[in-house]
Write a structure and sequence with these properties.
Elements: E1 5-9, E2 12-16, E3 28-33, E4 36-41, H1 46-54
Antiparallel strand pairs: 1-2, 3-4
């Protein structure tokens, strides 16, 4: 388990993240999930995603995904 230091920064509470938890972004999203507080890099915009799709080669996935048949599962 890794721990981080909590401290006051002006009127805000801050957390000093250890090196192995550094973000490669200027902004992060913060939200509560139950009793947990979650930080994650802000997702890229839809424009960025669509631009990436436009740059895909014409034959990308021309052969399909190659998925196997659906799994057989018990009903609830």
């Amino acid at each position: 388990m890794t721990y981080a230091r909590v401290f006051q920064s002006g009127n805000s509470q801050a957390v000093r993240l250890p090196k192995e938890f550094r973000f490669n972004a200027e902004q992060v999203e913060i939200f509560r999930q139950g009793n947990d507080v979650v930080l994650r890099e802000r997702p890229v915009s839809a424009v960025t995603i669509l631009d990436a799709l436009v740059r895909m080669p014409a034959g990308f996935m021309a052969g399909g995904r190659g998925d196997g048949p659906p799994q057989e599962r018990e009903t609830f």
